[in-house]
Write a structure and sequence with these properties.
globular; mainly beta; about 110 residues
Length: about 110
């Protein structure tokens, strides 16, 4: 799983049945645990983030608009090879020095 945004979800932000690799995603502000067992995140903004992940408010445009706002800590954070060439709006990645974490590439 790559380049997803999970916010305001009921129960776990991401539920993994088995071993699932998640890359460059945002998992924040969900009502239950951020992740179920079996989830392996890298280069993501996740509540309780460790390793190559971090934990910071992603700064969305609004509670219903999950585009990244100016000043988001998710902007230009993905390092290394990235096979995701377009964001959820169909816009090319990266736009800036590196790709952004999550479904949106901030313009």
């Amino acid at each position: 799983v790559a380049r997803n945004t999970s916010s305001n979800a009921f129960n776990a932000g991401v539920r993994c049945d088995g071993a699932v690799s998640i890359f460059g995603s945002i998992v924040h502000d969900n009502t239950g645990a951020a992740l179920s067992s079996g989830c392996a995140l890298t280069q993501s903004d996740v509540e309780g983030g460790t390793g190559s992940n971090f934990d910071a408010p992603p700064l969305f445009v609004s509670a219903t608009d999950f585009h990244l706002a100016a000043g988001s800590p998710c902007i230009d954070r993905v390092t290394g090879a990235d096979s995701t060439t377009h964001d959820a709006d169909g816009e090319r990645r990266p736009f800036g020095s590196a790709s952004d974490i999550g479904a949106d590439e901030r313009r």
